[in-house]
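User: We ran a pulldown and think these components assemble together. Before we commit to crystallization trials, I'd like a predicted model of the whole complex to look at. Sequences follow.
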Amino acid sequence: MTAPGPSGPIIAASNVTRAFDGKKVVDDLSFEVDRGTILGVVGPSGSGKTTTVRMLTGTLGRTDGEIRVLDEDPLAFSRGTRSRIAYMPQLFSLYEDLSAQENVGFVAALYGIGPFKRRSLIRNALEVVDLYEARHRLARDLSGGMQRRLELACALVHSPDVLFIDEPTAGIDPVLRQAIWDELRTLRDDGRTLVVTTQYVTEAEYCDRVALIADGELVALDTPDALRKLVFGGEVLEVGTDRAVDPDVLANVGGVTGVRQPEARKLIVTTEDAGSTTPQIIEALRTAGIGVTGLEEHQATFDEVFTGLVEQRRAARSEETGGHADV
Amino acid sequence: MSDAMQGISHSVVRMASFTGKELREVIRRPGALLSLILGPFLIMFLFGLGYSGYRAPFTTEIVVPAESDFSRSADAYESLAPGRLEVTQVTDDREGAEQRLRDGDIDLLVVAPENSAAELRAGRQTTIRVAWNEVDPVYDQLATLATSILVSSLNAEIVERAAAEGIGFAEGELGPAADIPPEVIARPTTADTQNVAPTPPQVTNFFGPAVFALVIQHLAITLTALSLVRERTSGQMDRFRVAPVSSMELLVGKYIAYAVLSLAVSAIVGVLLVGVLGVPLLGSISLFLGIVLLLTFASLGFGLLISLVADSERQAVQLSMLMLLASVFFSGFVLPVTDFAEWMQYIAYALPVTHGIATLQDLMLRGAVTAPWQLLALLGIGVVLYVGSLLRLRRVIRTAD
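Assistant: Here's a predicted model for the assembly, 728 residues in total across the polymer chains.
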């Protein structure tokens, strides 16, 4: 159960900019995060994700803009607000000469949790990340993946309301990545608010909302499904046919906004609403004497989504600058 | 529990977390502790054990010309400067002796005048040539001193011989007019020396407390510097920035850890010094512990200062070693602080170990601190550095640049 907070968004960033030596690393970023949701900050390495998270936690100042977290400016967090926040840094920063249990205990003590109450909380946190059996091992003897999980356990130990987690799955095998995301979603289901950065674009699928960042700018901000629609102009159907077909067959079908033919017997059809358009597509193909061998919603990968969004942004920039965009 | 009590309780927990963490880290790295902290002092300890303070006498040749009335007994010359000369031979081969000096076969060459008594009677000074071949400034000074003693003794011998001749002449011409022995005429005064210090001046006694003070300072500086630099460079500082922990809680936690560590090391080194090496502890144990705590407090400030200016562990170690070097040279460990220029003495007195050595040597070897202002100086250095470090750390810990 999370503590009561403001009625509006838990996190609000407005026109936030951060420059280092005059060079903007984060440029005019604005977004909000509602209680009990996961915001995925997705982008390639060096795109400004960590800088964004550090500004949200108050560990880094900003050049311009406003940030509110739990209704306070991160640069002036009260102790009470700090105790409701957790931050998991991108790099392993715990103490190598302490055991897993001692590291988690140390972080718990930073939040003022006494030794008796601490014991059960440490156990819970270590069990969540599946490290309880390794609790006596020194941090330096843990594998890279275990160290990331230990960092996560440290972030969880004081039951924070808001978690800022920087690249939790970097350098971790796919199975463990899945497990970590399962845990993050469980925390979300428990009412906690999470901001998670990742350079794995596919992990955007696990988030409630996704902020795509490139070159320090917000390329897009929406739910994963909405971002797909944004890229492809609607919902996408993949239609298999029993013989080669001319895409123009579907040109006059109402609700169809685009048709591509990646293979002779396959059409990728973009529609405004797949539910209402599907029967019309089938009918149009039958009328042309073409049998439908398969029809399913095309789930574009987030690599495609991200690439599409970045290309759209470049095209827009190019138009604005008369074909001389430098991005 | 009221909010205030809960706040205090949480604060104590946070400080204790740093204390516990620091102690665990130190204990888990015994190798680093040994090499970084105890290594240099193990060498000093061996030096103290192996160095007796005894300086070998100068290997000396005496050249006495054939016609000279000087003695040709090696023992006679050795007795003129006891313990400082080892006369290998008395010869009239000046060329050969000069060559042996140039070759480094002997340390010192003394060439007696040809007829000193006759020259004296004629009212002229004679010259004793003394030469040595030494590049070490310390040995150069010692050779000068040995020469001075030798020449003084030889002068007295010459005067004594002349006086004896004079008394003999007076007795022959005037009867027993004078009954003053010639050696009294030659050496009318003698010295009755006494060192009134409560403990005899021995190398181990004198350097034991000094090494102990250096151990305490170096331990505190190196470990604190390393600890904070590691936290700054690893990203751990970001965790502190987010957590509800204050700079003061962080500092106090670390201070307590190193105070505990210093007391533990003090106990071990103290037992070694007093129990094994036999260094006296004439003063009170409580004042001894007080000095240790003050020295630790002041030294931790320097460690924090280093940690706030160093940008890597390597640089922190280098700066810690520079502090050790500065302390060895300027603190009174090797040379008295008063031997330095006045401006240099101000720098020396800014080092905690300068006051640590002086007060510990006083307390252990004399039974009391003869300059109590040095205790206040330790406190002052500690307070200034603590406040400065706290203000700086407060800025560092709250928001990165």
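Residues 1-6 of chain A have pLDDT under 50 and may be disordered. That may be worth checking against your pulldown data before setting up trials.

User: Thanks, that helps.
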